[in-house]
Amino acid sequence: MDEVEVVVAHSQRATLRVGDVFLKVDGDPAHAEREARAMDMAPIPTPAVLWREPPVLAIAAVPGKALGVLGEPSAASPAAWAAAGAAVRKLHDAPLPPWPGPRLDDVAAELDRECAWLLAHAVVPAEVVRRNRAIAEAALRPWTPVFVHGDLQITHVFVDGDEVTGVIDWSEAAPGDAMFDLAILTLGHEERLDEVLAGYGPGADRDVIRAWWSLRSLVASRWLIEHGFDPDARGCEFDVLRSRMREP
């Protein structure tokens, strides 16, 4: 029997790997349902769904390697990053999934709530929180919904050479802001934004992408801390927040 590898595990969900099969166990069966439907609808390479027995979703491994990880330089070529941008454009041009996405009012309320928590617990200096809260304001504007992945971290995009071979982890897919996907893909790898946008094409707003870098890092930090992750690791969320302090 193949060795069982725990890929990620926390109180909400766990992912195990057995050979070339990934078993995703989620406390909310709606996540698995949405993930399977989103992968079926997405016009870009996704893992094959092998079987689904709530609360478990079994999917096949995709070929290739992830674009990279937070905190380390990406070994992927500029062409691979551009291919990722082109794949994101193809997704954003696809018909919307038939379930609701995030509401602007809810995003704004979450930002206020998480900034208050960061200030109260002093996990980063207050001036860092306030500076990034001001930058994040640019993301809080009405957007035209597109089909977004919703959690497009570089570890979720796989490439082989200069081609995208698969995009994984679709449980947050929904109608949403296109700039959010582009920001999450380049979070902590801002030097790759030009390459991504070369593949994505026209219509990207760099100021809004920059705002989402700040907003995402602010709202994700408490969840990461409470679930055993370290947003202060090199190249991760706190570094993203601190980097804004060096800008004019």
Automatic annotation (TrEMBL):
Keywords of the record: Kinase, Transferase
Annotated InterPro entries: AGP_Transferase, Aminoglycoside_PTrfase, Kinase-like_dom_sf
Record-linked Gene3D superfamilies: 3.90.1200.10
Record PANTHER family: AMINOGLYCOSIDE PHOSPHOTRANSFERASE DOMAIN-CONTAINING PROTEIN-RELATED (PTHR21310:SF40), AMINOGLYCOSIDE PHOSPHOTRANSFERASE-RELATED-RELATED (PTHR21310)
Protein's name in the database: Predicted kinase, aminoglycoside phosphotransferase (APT) family
Domain of life: Bacteria
Residue intervals passing through the bilayer: none
Native species: Krasilnikoviella flava
Matching SUPFAM superfamilies: Protein kinase-like (PK-like) (SSF56112)
GO MF annotations in UniProt: kinase activity
Domain called Aminoglycoside phosphotransferase: residue spans: 33-211
